[in-house]
Design brief:
The chain is α/β, with parallel strands linked by helices. It folds into 2 domains: about 210 residues, Rossmann fold, CATH 3.40.50; about 70 residues, UDP-galactose 4-epimerase, domain 1 (Alpha-Beta Complex). It is about 40% helix and about 15% strand. It is built from 10 helices and 13 strands. A 7-stranded parallel beta sheet has the order 3-2-1-4-5-6-11, with helices on both faces. A two-stranded parallel sheet has the order 7-10. Helix 2 packs parallel to helix 4 and helix 6 runs parallel beside helix 8. The longest helix is centred in the first third of the chain and has 22 residues. The termini are far apart.
Length: about 300
């Protein structure tokens, strides 16, 4: 398949390109103007917020499929720039859908949503795709709107549109704005002797579900190849871990034992996100995760180790 990838230069996008190419697909990578200087032969300039440009691109490239990754993914931004987040996450998704509806209606389309759409529901079992959405922040509301709209396009227009609702994903190449690379940088500095063995941390008791980004992009490719139109697919590890355990594992792998001090400025109340049931994904595509948490953390540390 010739797959148009929006958000191709992001954390996930780089891994997606490698995964698709290894499976024999052709990646058509959408980039924005600010990324233009390093443009390659398989990169095409465009902005998902520009409906006309998106339609022209789809008309000219005639892709067989689309993996829509582009969007604002950092939750706090939605509170400070809500209009921007809704323009990108909702209107941008509509522009992608309409471009394909008009120019390549037979294409297979996967819209990336988020586990955040489920909110902080108090379930005693993993959540399935049939469980209600209960978003707790504006980012999650924007993803819910894009998710439901995308699935509606299958019912309304007969398009082959699917959504993926992934849990938190970690791995090489992730921004230091996120918890694992932020911890890893500090741990590496201590291990190299560049910093004292002392770390200021927030609340380490909250729990989250984490998958290696390379397992996540495996799931995305398999959904594109085998997923059924009009369905959402949870992409989850099947269990949550305590944030503090991530730090403990990173320290063990690096061979350090820093003193931890709670920083009131970083402290947030303890919470637990629901765990996702990925049965549908496994049954429809045969997906299985390949990376252990320890292997993922070791790879992050290796990538961020000071030269």
């Amino acid at each position: 398949m010739r797959v148009l990838i929006t958000g191709s230069r992001g954390f996930v996008g780089r891994h997606v390109q490698n995964n698709l190419q290894a499976a024999g697909h052709e990646a058509l990578n959408l980039i924005v103007a600010a990324e233009r200087p390093a443009r390659s032969a398989h990169e095409y300039e465009g902005d998902i917020c520009d409906a006309t440009r998106m339609r022209n691109l789809v008309r000219d490239l005639r892709p067989d499929a689309c993996l829509h990754l582009a969007g604002v993914a950092f939750v706090p931004v939605a509170w400070s720039k809500p209009e921007f987040v809704f323009e990108v996450n909702v209107q941008g998704t509509l522009n992608v859908l309409d471009a394909f509806r008009n120019e390549a209606p037979e294409a297979r389309i996967l819209i990336i949503s988020s586990a955040e759409v489920y909110g902080l529901q108090d379930f005693h079992r993993p959540l399935t795709e049939q469980d209600p959405m209960n978003p707790e922040n504006l980012y999650a509301v924007s993803k819910q709107a894009a998710d439901l709209t995308s699935l509606l396009y299958t019912r309304r227009y007969g398009m082959h549109v699917m959504t993926a609702r992934p849990c938190n994903h970690i791995g090489p190449g992730q921004s230091a704005d996120f918890v694992v690379p932020a911890f890893a940088r500090q741990v590496n500095e201590i291990a190299s002797g560049r910093s004292e063995p002392h770390m200021r941390v927030g609340n380490l008791e909250s729990t989250r579900e984490f998958l290696d980004v390379r397992d996540v992009v495996d799931a995305y490719r398999l959904i594109l190849e085998k997923g059924q139109p009009g369905l959402a697919y949870n992409v989850g590890a099947g269990g949550a871990v305590r944030i503090g355990l991530l730090l403990e594992k990173l320290c063990r792998i690096a061979g350090v034992q820093p003193h931890l001090e709670v920083d009131p400025q970083r402290y947030r109340p303890t919470d637990a996100r629901p765990v996702l049931d990925a049965t549908r994904l496994r049954e429809h595509t045969g997906w299985q995760p390949r990376y252990t948490l320890d292997q993922t953390l070791a790879d992050v540390l290796a990538e961020l180790r000071p030269a």
